[in-house]
Amino acid sequence: MILGIDLGTSMVKATAFSIDGRCLGSAARRTVLNYLGAGRVEQDYELLVQSVGAVVREVVASTGQTPIAIGITGQSDGLWLVDDKGHATQAAVSWLDDRGNPYLKNWIDNGTFEAVFRRNGNAIFPGSHAPLIAAMAAADPAALERAHTVTYLKDAILQRLTGVRVTDASDASLPFLDTRTREYDPEIFRLLGLETYRRLLSPVIPAPGQAFPMTRAGSELTGLPEGIPVHAGPFDLPACAIGGGVRNVGDGLIIVGTTLACEVLVDEVRTDGPPVGMTLCLPETGRWIRALPATVGTASLDWILGIIGADATDVDRLLAQSRPGAIGVAALPYFSATGERAPFVDVNARGMLSGLNTSTTRADLVRAVCESVAYAARHCIEAAGLTGNLYVCGGGSNSTLWSQMIADALQIPLHISPRPEVGARGASMAALRVIGVDFDADAWTRPEGVITPDKAMAAHYERGFAFYQEMVAAARPLWHSPYRV
Fold first, then answer.
1. DSSP codes of every residue in 92-104
2. Are residues 38 and 103 in the same domain?
3. Domain boundary among 238, 264, 299
4. Which InterPro entries does the record cross-reference, listed alphabetically (predicted)?
């Protein structure tokens, strides 16, 4: 078997797969996000390390097999500061943290933001390395001096398992990489005024990646034998594309997760369009993922569910109780404190509910938010340039009615990516390729079914999408009003 580890924002998971792609078992531990107020969100890296050891031991015990290799994927961005042994020097700053907002806003205002995009096709957002490094350099420069490496979570875990300090080109793509050459771009560091901190970044592994043997320390953590190859592959957005069935240029994937990630496989880096989204290197050269990861997603739905005292198990029941259009209730789902990053960038973007009256029900509120996320998916997937098949995965896709709503809003068939754990599946596939094991990619990524759009709903959702765009246009001046409290 092969083991895929997915270091998500809300869960750490380990999933075992047979060489023909069957899921043999999975284990998970919930992560802890520490909300410190004033938009600050941190995580305890050492606690995550222990969770990795626990889930690996659990899934290996349940299968009774030792993996031939381990593939790692997970959340990107944030600020993970470690020493030369890969141990945390302080709490990690989550990608959900908004302390980078003023630095990004300044870069947007002075043209630096667009200048970086024109070099590598990546739009910086508040939770990415550049603004968080800038914020820490201003508020706590000693923290950066104490650290040996400013890294990403999956690369920090790789170092704990193998002792190797590297990163892959997908993580490094945003913001400092020349995505064509896969080398750091000195001009980007200069534009951002962060040349001093180049030394803190890990070397980028050349394509198609590399696996490293597990050390004694890794063995003690996981209970696995020393020497097992460990591959720190692409982070979760490209890994999901690989595991979700995206194979041909123009194919796309919608991940209905904490964020709504809409992505399309491309064969060139384009920097001439609007400065938005990400251009992420895949393991193979000449291929990139054009990603528009909106901050809306299940996080927006969870927020409204919490407001009304419901949870994810209630979603389909509530959607069934409210007809399309939610009796005039409409939403903008930008509830993240960091604003929005796709298909437009605005750190001041905020959520909105309109059309409320005394007849509005809890179900109407849920439907309005779900419809707004569906419209955001259409907005992003059109901007990403989809021309081929479209796949769907993520926790939100487990809702039958919400998935149908997304298909209806796009009027595009949604191929259901193989479950469970699409990200871990992609990480496992990438690892198998690197260690030279032949496998049937079609078997690994065969869709579980297709959600066909209801043509009878096309006109309704066309009007709804137009109104959604009108709401965005009307709200944007309000987000920047001098009278905003």
1. EEPTT--TTHHHH
2. yes
3. 238
4. ATPase_NBD, Carb_kinase_FGGY, FGGY_C, FGGY_Carb_Kinase, FGGY_N
Q: Among the residues of 11-100, which ranges form H helices?
A: 45-63
Mean pLDDT across the chain, nearest whole number? 95
**Residue 288 CB contacts under 8 Å (≥ 6 apart), including other chains:** 121, 179, 265, 266, 267, 268, 269, 279, 280, 281, 282
Do residues 175 and 277 both lie within one domain? no
How many CB atoms are located within 10 Å of the residue 362 CB?
17
Burial, 138: exposed, middle or buried (Cβ in 10 Å; 0-12, 13-18, 19+)?
exposed
Share of the chain above pLDDT 90, in %: 89
Q: Provide the pairing of β-strand 149-151 with 11-17.
A: unpaired
Enclosing domain of residue 320: 246-416+454-479
Q: Is the pLDDT of residue 485 over 80?
A: no
Residues 334, 349: contact at Cβ < 8 Å?
yes
Residue 65: how many CB atoms within 10 A of its CB?
Answer: 16
pLDDT tens-place string over residues 450-459: 999 999 999 9
Q: Which residues, listed in sequence order, are joined to residue 88 by a DSSP beta bridge?
A: 82
Structure tokens at 53: 């050891």
CA distance 124 to 275: 9
Measured CA to CA, the distance from residue 415 to residue 248 in angstroms comes to 14
Q: What is the distance between the alpha carbons of residues 102 and 478, in angstroms, rounded to a whole number?
A: 18
Name the nearest CA neighbour of 421 among 38, 71, 58, 69: 71
Amino acid at 107: W
- Band of pLDDT at residue 297, cut at 50, 70 and 90: confident
The CATH number for 229's domain is 3.30.420.40
Burial of 77 by CB count in 10 Å (0-12 exposed, 13-18 middle, 19+ buried)? Answer: buried
The answer to whether residues 176 and 185 touch, using CB atoms and an 8 Å cutoff, is: yes
Cα–Cα distance for residue pair 353/72, rounded to 1 Å: 39
Contact 93, 136 (CB under 8 A): yes
Residue 232 sits in the same domain as residue 275: no
User: Distance (Å, rounded) from C-alpha 104 to C-alpha 108?
Assistant: 6
Question: Measured at the alpha carbon of residue 397, what is the angle toward residues 448 and 405, in degrees to the nearest 5?
Answer: 105
CA dist., res. 459 & res. 168, Å (int): 44
Residues 390 and 371 in one domain: yes
CA 369 to CA 130: how far, in whole Å? Answer: 31
- 18 domain-assigned: yes
Please indicate, yes or no, whether residues 369 and 222 belong to a single structural domain of this protein: no
- 134, 139, 141, 142 alpha-carbon torsion, rounded to 10°: -150
